[in-house]
Structures are given as structure tokens and as C-alpha cells.
Amino acid sequence: MPKRLTPETQDSIKSALLDNRTPEDIADELGISSRTVRTYAARMIPERQKNPGGRRHIVPNDTKKYIRLLVIRVM
To answer: What is the residue range of 28's domain?
Structure first.
């Protein structure tokens, strides 16, 4: 089982996250894995906004509604 990070390192991670720095940036500075930073971030700041992931929408929702309306009119 890996060792836990020191309280000083954990405090550094938390303060950097509160300054809206990326996990990759924090990991490079502290010499640890970005996955480790994300793990500690999930523990320390559970309400932190996460990247939703997945493919981004190419067509906006308003345009989709308009296209549906046009298709319904044609049928």
C-alpha cells in the first residue's frame, strides 16, 4: 500500500485547487502523479466542479429544436 502524502503536501494541494490550478500543474510542481492530485481533490473538496467528459455537442440545442420543427412541417 502506498504511503499517504504529508499534511504539508495535502495542504499545498488543497490551496492550489482553491486557486483553480489544474491537477497536472499541481502534480508537476509537487513531483507527484496528477491522478494522486485528483484523488486527494475528491476527498478534500467533494463539491469541486469536475470535467463532464464525453463528446461535446457540435449542434446547439436551439438549432436542434429548429431542425425538428422543420422536419415535422415537411412530414
So the answer is: 1-49
Residue 48 backbone dihedrals phi, psi, to 5 degrees: -60, 135
**Separation CA 3–CA 8 (nearest Å):** 14
Distance separating alpha carbons of residues 23 and 13, to the nearest angstrom: 9
Q: Please give the distance of CA 10 from its chain centroid, rounded to a whole number.
A: 19
Residue 51 or 11, more confident? 11
Q: Kindly provide the b/e burial profile for residues 11-49, where b requires at least 16 CB atoms within 10 angstroms of the residue's own CB.
A: eebbebbeeeeebeebbeeeebeeebbbebbeeeeeeee
Domain total of the chain: 1
- Global pTM? 0.62
